[in-house]
Amino acid sequence: MASKITPQPGIMDIALYVSGESKLEGKSEVLKLSSNENPYGFSDKAREAYLRTVHNLHRYPNTDHGPLRRAIGEVHGLDADRIICGVGSDEVLQFITQAFAGPGDEIITTEHGFSMYPILAKMVGATEVEVKEKDRRIDVDAILAAVTDRTRIIFVANPANPTGTYLEQDEVRRLAAGLPDTVLLVHDGAYTEFVEGADGGAALVDEFPNVIMTRTFSKIYGLGGLRIGWGYAARDIIDVLNRIRQPFNLSDTQMTVAEAAVRDIAFVEKCRSDNARLRDFMRNAFLQMGVECDESHANFVLARFASAEEAAAVDAALKADGIIVRRVAGYKLPTGLRITVGDEAACRRVIHVVATYKGVR
Ligand SMILES: *Cc1c(COP(=O)(O)O)cnc(C)c1O
Q1: 155 ligand 1 Cβ < 6 A
Q2: Could you say which of 26, 29, 95, 128 is the most buried, measured as most Cβ atoms within 10 Å of its Cβ?
Q3: What is the pTM of this model?
Q4: What is the pLDDT of residues 242-255, one digit of tens each?
């Protein structure tokens, strides 16, 4: 018997999030390059911390995330009192949406933006306003032109997923400076660590009280399975978000491992430099085969083929070789394949399959 219990408006419009595939029929070993995971795993210091925390499983964790926030603050030079931690940055993005938007409000996203943003808008019954990009890059003027007096939140990921394109700080600053001070700009820095010298928007947060930066331990730190992310904003914004955060949202294990990970700067630097080298290697190989590929600033490349059919055929050829990448038709990129930068052997395998398909080798 069907229930007569009805959900809040918007919820039934949500199409469930599709995560990167991880299995192939008939293959016991797969090379998973569909979820932007770190090919090197995670820091040994994080592993040691994880094992230590097993002794505390019977204890409730601390509720204020103090030690982790202070570690993040020290490493990144930020005020620990203006940091909030969540179950992945996804949870921080959810707090932001729940706290600052509701029915009748508008949330601006962009043409090829991260697929969580429309899900969050619908979750709170707000209206999603999708703004065009320019050649797969976020278009600051188009966003500014789309702002109305109903706009509450703007979501931009920078570097962007799945395009890998990047807005330099002066462009993001122009966006922040052009907004009414009642509109919250969310600068999603899930891939910040892959950009040499980038602060993820921290300086803009310090300059503009209506900018929030989100960050994650899922990408360069290789801790997607542990679910930890954080945000940095003006004190009053963080105060609002803390009111809707469950007091025990993060376990001691999550916090202790994240703290060890953020302090292991050498691991992050190794991952950043290897990623940059192999990402450019893969992109150049694609360009030489006549496969279009924008410069990426993240840990993946977006290869663009001649047609959706060719993208599907290359995807099939990769799968036949045990390699899983991400189709991105749902991101309005039907000719694209988003391919995580793996280790060197992984990159060579991908290049070999694509080259063979293209008949270049
Ligand atoms: C991966 C990703 C995230 C966050 O993931 P969490 O695992 O929830 O921290 C956020 N934004 C973008 C654009 C991402 O690609």
Answers
A1: no
A2: 95
A3: 0.96
A4: 999 999 999 999 99
